Every structure is written in structure tokens, then in C-alpha cells.
């Protein structure tokens, strides 16, 4: 399990993604709703690490609004190797700059981050499923495309490490 710095979406967008999770489950695809005893929230991860120290992260991000009210427009569905299905927001200059700023502050604060979340490599996404059976991928993608576009606003942020039971709100 990994730890993540997560950006949470407004109520309407969150509700729409949860409806999509239900539609995927109806297709036989285990969605993120099924994981973590249904405590998983739709989000974008800005940074990921094998483990986070909440005090170190809080100190590194002091004075920064991690939950900046960014406007996101989810316009596409994607798939990562390993049958991971996701929705992707348009990578606006504001989103990419916010990601870079948070990443740079964490690194300067001595926080070790997963390499594929570094600026220039990061793919902004909201994970829908981590285990889409190959035979169901086309139906799952079709379900995703039926609900796009999806407009959202970032309303909150938290540092999470589900393996250690950490959910630490961030400003």
C-alpha cells in the first residue's frame, strides 16, 4: 500500500463518480467503491510515497493551500498497465503549476516521493478501478465515456495512508 496526498472534489462531481462506480460494479468491474471498506473517496493524487510522516509533510507545505479551488474538466478515460481504469482532467497550466509547487515543496522538505508522480511524468487522474478484467474493459470504458464531460472543483485535500489508518486533512 502507498500513501498519497489527495485532492477531493466538490459534492456534485463526487456523487457523479460514485454513480459511475455503481455502474461499473453492475458491469462486473470492481470499482474503488469496493476497496477500503467503502471509505475510498474520488480524488486526484498530487504526490505518492511508500510512506508519509504527517508532521514532515505539514511542515514542508506550511503556508501553502494544497486544496486550491482548482477547476477541473474531466474529458477522457484512460487505462494504465495492469488494468487500471481512470478519468482524466484536462491538464491545465494552473493544475500543472499547482502540482509542481506542491511537489517541489515536499522534495525541499525532505519527503521522498514516487518517481512517476514527479512533474513532467505525472498523469493527473481519478482512479475508477484497479482490476478491470480484460474482457470487460471495453464496456467499462464505454460507461466512462457516457458520463463525460465532468466538471469539478477541488474543495479539500488530505494526506492518506490507508495501511496505517492515516487521513490527515491539509489546508
What's the quick description here?
The chain is built from 4 helices and 7 strands.
The ordered H/E elements are EHEHEEHEHEE
Task: Give the helix tally.
Answer: 4
The Cα radius of gyration reads 16 Å
Q: Tell me what portion of residues adopts beta-strand conformation.
A: 25-35%
The largest β sheet comes out as:
7 strands, antiparallel
The percent of residues in helical segments reads 25-40%
**Beginning-to-end CA distance, first to last residue:** 24 Å
Mean pLDDT: 93
Please tell me what the overall shape is.
globular
SS-derived structural category: alpha+beta
* Total beta strand runs: 7
Q: What are the segments in which pLDDT stays under 50 over at least 5 consecutive residues?
A: none
Keywords:
171 residues; 7-stranded antiparallel beta sheet; alpha+beta; 7 strands
Please outline the helices and strands.
Blueprint: E1 3-9, H1 11-26, E2 43-49, H2 54-60, E3 71-80, E4 84-89, H3 93-108, E5 126-129, H4 137-146, E6 150-161, E7 166-170
Written description of the protein model:
By secondary structure, the chain is of the alpha+beta class. The protein has 4 helices and 7 strands. Strands 1, 2, 3, 4, 5, 6 and 7 form a 7-stranded antiparallel sheet that branches. A hairpin with a 3-residue loop joins β3 and β4.
